[in-house]
């Protein structure tokens, strides 16, 4: 079993040079995809947070754009070993989206248009570590990169940053997502090289 | 249309791409075997699945309904094969006498 310790985060590496172990630097932005690219019109897009009691908090595209946004500049690390430094995004912090959500949950399962899922400890979505982003490099996020909006959780391997995100379900028990149920690590910390189960 | 072109247009290749990776696990050529999609019931050779291989693993989807029929993840010391999207797999074998 892998060592999953949700409390082990918050290390500040923004200023640190270098790459996580086993990674190489790339300047382009490879497109990885486990299925056909969903094309979701903005006026049909919705984002839903569902609590463990079934309570739903929902935002339309317009409501989402009205929320205060941030412009995180972050390094991203794909489990297929490429890393890209200093990527610039715009989106809404999960702290904002979860601010009025009452929950006792410790776990989250993000789900996407097209059926993709990925799991994270709820703590890893809070305290300025995660966003729902709709712009990349000054432009609307292209469908190939997860537009209209994707999750951005840069301190974990990039498969956790679900493309085409449509919602987050809060859970009292951990539920493995798409890759986590097929051999990939449950937590996925690139600095501890948690690629596969058992790492 | 070349394979590379098809991938550029559709993002996937056909199930023949599974032949090499699955040959590590099975003595037979599984791409020639027939499988049944658990979602829509479509039956056909594994070679006809749509394989998304520019991903952390190989994801083979039903050509009829896009359902994930097979997933294969290769770690440094193991292969993870998920067949929950498939009702059955029929492998043609030499007739026994
Ligand atoms: Zn099907």
Automatic annotation (TrEMBL), chain A:
Which InterPro entries does the record match to this protein?
OxRdtase_Mopterin-bd_dom, OxRdtase_Mopterin-bd_sf
Q: Where is the Oxidoreductase molybdopterin-binding domain?
A: 35-179
Q: Where is this region: Disordered?
A: 1-23
Q: Name one Pfam family in it.
A: Oxidored_molyb
Report the domain of life of the source organism. Bacteria
Put simply, this protein is called Sulfite oxidase-like oxidoreductase
UniProtKB/TrEMBL annotation, chain B:
Q: Name one Pfam family in it.
A: DUF6510
Q: Which InterPro entries match?
A: DUF6510
Q: What name does UniProt use for this protein? A: Uncharacterized protein
């Amino acid at each position: 079993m892998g060592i999953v310790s949700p409390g082990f985060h918050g290390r500040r590496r923004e200023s640190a040079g270098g790459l996580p172990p086993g990674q190489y630097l790339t300047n382009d932005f490879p497109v990885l995809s486990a299925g056909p690219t969903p094309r979701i019109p903005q006026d049909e897009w919705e984002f839903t947070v569902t609590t463990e009691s079934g309570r739903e908090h929902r935002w339309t595209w317009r409501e989402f754009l009205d929320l205060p946004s941030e412009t995180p500049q972050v390094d991203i690390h794909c489990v297929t070993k490429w890393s890209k430094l200093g990527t610039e995004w715009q989106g809404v912090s999960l702290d904002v989206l979860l601010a009025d959500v009452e929950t006792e949950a410790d776990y989250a399962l993000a789900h996407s248009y097209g059926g993709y899922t990925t799991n994270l400890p709820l703590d890893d979505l809070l305290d300025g570590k995660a966003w729902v982003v709709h712009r990349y490099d000054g432009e609307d996020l292209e469908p190939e990169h997860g537009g209209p909006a994707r999750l951005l959780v840069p301190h974990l391997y990039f498969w956790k940053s679900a493309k085409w995100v449509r919602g987050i379900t809060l859970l009292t028990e951990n539920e493995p997502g798409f890759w986590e149920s097929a051999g990939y690590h449950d937590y996925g910390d690139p600095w501890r090289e948690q690629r596969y189960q058992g790492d | 249309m070349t394979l590379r072109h098809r991938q550029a247009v559709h993002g996937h290749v056909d199930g023949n791409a599974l032949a090499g990776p699955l040959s590590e696990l099975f003595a037979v050529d599984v791409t020639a075997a027939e499988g049944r999609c658990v979602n829509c019931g479509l039956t056909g050779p594994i070679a006809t699945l749509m394989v998304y291989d520019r991903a952390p693993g190989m994801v083979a989807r039903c050509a009829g309904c896009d359902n994930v029929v097979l997933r294969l993840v290769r770690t440094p010391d193991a292969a993870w094969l998920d067949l929950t999207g498939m009702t059955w797999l029929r492998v043609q074998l030499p007739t026994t006498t």
